[in-house]
């Protein structure tokens, strides 16, 4: 990238010499390290959201739109229960099955 000249002062872009684009996916070892830290920190809500994100492969914007009623039927959700989500980018509806945490 070339420096952008504003007035007489050349300015270097903030992301000059940095990698841009899609990040590499988390490795299995990193996923388990995050899960263990959330369990040890007694962060049940964060652990549930993290597990849902990993199991369903949803984007963050789709996860934040979910409500409890979207995932749970009745008072709890058992492993194997099905739920559907709508992808914000493509508008496609995806069917998911809840996994054991």
Explain the overall architecture.
- The chain has 101 residues and is α+β, with helices and mostly antiparallel strands.
- The chain has one domain.
- 36% of the residues lie in helices and 16% in strands.
- α1 runs antiparallel to α2.
- The N and C termini lie far apart (46 Å).
- 1% of the residues are buried.
Q: What's the helix and strand layout?
A:
Layout: E1 4-6, E2 9-11, H1 28-40, H2 44-56, H3 60-65, H4 68-71, E3 82-86, E4 93-97
Antiparallel strand pairs: 1-2, 3-4
Helix pairs in contact: 1-2
Rounded to an integer in angstroms, the radius of gyration calculated over CA atoms is 20 Å
Secondary structure: number of strands:
4
- Average of per-residue pLDDT values: 75
Q: How many structurally independent domains? A: 1
Principal-axis shape: elongated
How far apart are the first and last residues' alpha carbons, in Å?
46 Å
Low-confidence stretches: none
Give the number of helices. Answer: 4
Q: Could you spell the SSE succession in H and E letters? A: EEHHHHEE
Beta strand %? 15-25%
């Amino acid at each position: 990238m070339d420096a952008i000249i504003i007035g007489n002062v050349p300015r270097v872009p903030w992301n000059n010499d940095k990698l841009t684009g899609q990040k590499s996916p988390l490795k299995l070892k990193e996923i388990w390290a995050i899960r263990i830290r959330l369990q040890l920190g007694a962060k049940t809500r964060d652990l549930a959201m993290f597990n849902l994100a990993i199991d369903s492969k949803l984007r963050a914007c789709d996860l934040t739109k979910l409500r409890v009623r979207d995932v749970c039927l009745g008072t709890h959700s058992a492993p194997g229960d099905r739920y559907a989500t709508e992808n914000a980018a493509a508008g496609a509806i995806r069917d998911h099955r809840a996994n054991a945490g």
